[in-house]
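Good morning C.,

I know you're traveling, so I'll keep this short. The sequence:
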Amino acid sequence: MASKNFLMTSQARESGVLNLAVLGATGRMGREIIQLMDGRKDLNLSGASAGDAHERLGQPLTRRIKLDTPAAALADAHVAIDFSLPAGVSSHIETCCAMNVPYVCGVTGLSASHDTLMHEASQVIPVFRAPNMSIGVNLCIAAAASIAAGLAADFDVSILDIHHAGKRDVPSGTALEFGGQIEAVATPNKVAYDSIREGEYPGEHLVRFSLGEELIELRHRAGSRREFAVGALRAAAWLADQPPGLYNMRNLLDIRSSS
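The tokens, ready to paste straight into the viewer:
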């Protein structure tokens, strides 16, 4: 028997409209995604949630959608996009599995237990995880890994991330992704992280490779959160057509390994 999600996604493709539920709908990224969806004929906001006990639960969020519980928000969704907080991620994953809804996660500051849960969930539903949904920054991460693979050893790496004052995780998930991809293909002498939290800055990352008297720098600066929302919506549309599995931006962008 075909799964619920397969049937729903097939119907969505026939109608040309993909239903999306946004979890963490009242946060910076949730609001950005909902705003970007407005006026899109190929995407429909079918549900929105900020948790089971949010102070605005049951109140209108848009002209058509009220702020609901995660389970209610997922009722008609073909794909869920989660930009909530780490505390809610486990229950969101479990609910998506129970309701057979593909899950896109942009939440940062997650733990090893979240990694394990996503891996287990990916046996049941398609799961997409990326600490940064920007197309540009992910191409920079791939470039950093390529540089590191060419250097191989005897070099130092420093990674600086600058974000708005409200960002809680230090270093950023993107900074850790830069470092992780570099160390996956090379053995630097050290990888040093530094973080700045100030104002409303959406995000900047600077990666420096120091080798003797040479210095290589890679910098990515986000002008607004819109670029992250664009990537998240692209990921959701792509994930709707995938079988169960664990995916990331390298899969979406078809980035080949540097190892």
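Safe travels,
E.
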